[in-house]
Design a protein that fits this description.
Number of helices: 8
CATH class of the largest domain: Alpha Beta
Strand content: 25-35%
Number of domains: 2
Oligomer: single chain
Helix content: 10-25%
Length: 409
């Protein structure tokens, strides 16, 4: 994936910014929290970059800060977004798409429109059922049916919808064994879960990192197409946001990691211990992994935490903020993502659809409508990152609080 290190760092920083917000709003079973969640900063980042290039005033500055790159022509955020989308389309195991829909009466700036794929531009008819059907069909088509509905608010004054779809999949070269896992302690105590186990001689797949929030055990499950999944178990008391931020810090090589081959005997990290056993033969060291299968799904309203995404000024509909997109005053009235992920004995798959709706803002005619044996055991809640191996780009992230029970469909 020929993406610059600056772009990778910018997307990964947005993953960290979003982690606290995404996990804080995920509520577990019985009202307890946090619950399952999954999100993809990679799905949102290009959209923010394109909006930044078309914004002006405070909205432009806020969006550029959230994107982590300067807005504007000539190597700005939009240029980086175009390069990233091109790279994603060429990456095995990844499917991505960009969509733009506008009302026929909305005239776009040529320079901004030219930066988007020509085939991406569709039309909003103004009929909610018709438009909703077209948008939902696009979301389902570009995620293989894993996300069936476009997560956007359509209102009478919605002038523009900008969306991205991302679908990724990888298969383990060597599948896990599945079995009923009876958990003896912790939040899952007494439950029988769909356990996954595997033994390997590759001790470097696991390690312990020292992070500002505490120790984090990381296990890399390698996929056959260069897409890996990293399971992250923090010390008890660490928040999901801290654990996921630590995982990105490990990706970016900001936290020291003690790898499996150098681990001392004993309890060396969360869910991780090294034991020495008697054997009749001189067997090499082994890594025993026990984890759980999971299916997670989540929807996110980015306007619940607009400061994370640089949308505080952009959503103020008393005036327009996107003079670089259209002469017609526009403000963000919808910013959402729907995401899903599955981890099982055979592999991993995830999908996300992200969308922004721009509505008419102040200064428009009054007839407008507007509504508002190293043993690595993951037997308690943990985080995960789907990662492009060579670029170290975080493709998706999430938190597993409710794994799949044994015998579940």
């Amino acid at each position: 994936m020929p993406v610059t290190k600056e772009t990778v760092r910018a997307v990964n920083r947005l993953t960290v910014r979003w982690a606290d917000a995404a996990t804080a709003t995920a509520v577990g079973a019985g009202g307890a929290g946090p619950g399952n969640t999954v999100f993809s900063a990679l799905g949102v980042w290009p959209l923010l970059a394109f909006l930044a290039d078309g914004a002006h005033g405070p909205a432009r500055a806020e969006l550029a800060e959230a994107v982590g790159l300067p807005a504007g022509a000539g190597g700005g955020a939009g240029s980086a977004a175009r390069e990233l989308l091109t790279a994603l389309r060429r990456t095995p195991g990844l499917d991505s798409a960009l969509g733009l829909w506008t009302k026929r009466t909305l005239e776009l700036r040529e320079a901004w429109e030219a930066g988007l794929p020509a085939e991406a531009h569709g039309v909003l008819t103004g009929d909610e059922d018709t438009d909703r059907g077209a948008l939902d069909a696009w979301a389902a088509r570009h995620t293989g049916g894993r996300v069936e509905n476009m997560p956007v608010v359509l209102e009478k004054d919605t002038e523009l919808v900008l969306a991205s779809a991302l679908a990724l999949r990888t298969r383990w070269p060597r599948p896990f064994d599945d079995f009923p896992l009876r958990v003896a302690r912790g939040p899952w105590q007494g439950r029988t879960l769909l356990g996954l186990g595997r033994t390997s001689a590759l001790l470097d797949r696991v390690g312990v990192a020292e992070t500002p929030g505490g120790l984090v055990t990381g296990l890399t499950v390698y996929g056959g197409n260069g897409i890996d999944v990293r399971l992250l178990l923090g010390e008890e008391g660490m928040t999901p946001g801290q654990v996921l931020a630590a995982g990105v810090g490990i990706l970016d090589r900001r936290h020291p990691v003690l790898p499996g081959p150098r681990l001392p005997l004993g309890e060396v990290g969360p869910g991780l211990r090294v034991v020495r056993e008697l054997s009749q033969t001189p067997d090499p060291p082994v890594l025993d992994v026990t984890t759980v299968a999971y299916d997670v799904a989540a929807t996110h309203d980015l306007l619940d935490r607009p400061e994370v995404f640089g949308l505080t000024a952009a959503r103020d509909d008393r005036e327009g903020h996107f003079a670089g997109i259209s002469a017609q005053p526009l403000a963000v009235n919808s910013a959402r993502q729907a995401a899903v992920a599955r981890f099982d004995a055979e592999g991993f798959q995830a999908a996300a659809v992200s969308s922004f709706g721009l509505a008419a803002a102040g200064g428009m005619p009054t007839l407008r409508w507007r509504t508002t044996r190293v043993e690595a055991t993951f037997d308690r809640p943990f985080g995960f990152l789907a990662v492009h191996r060579h670029s170290r780009l975080a493709l998706a992230a999430g938190w597993v609080a409710e794994p799949r029970p044994f015998g579940w469909g």
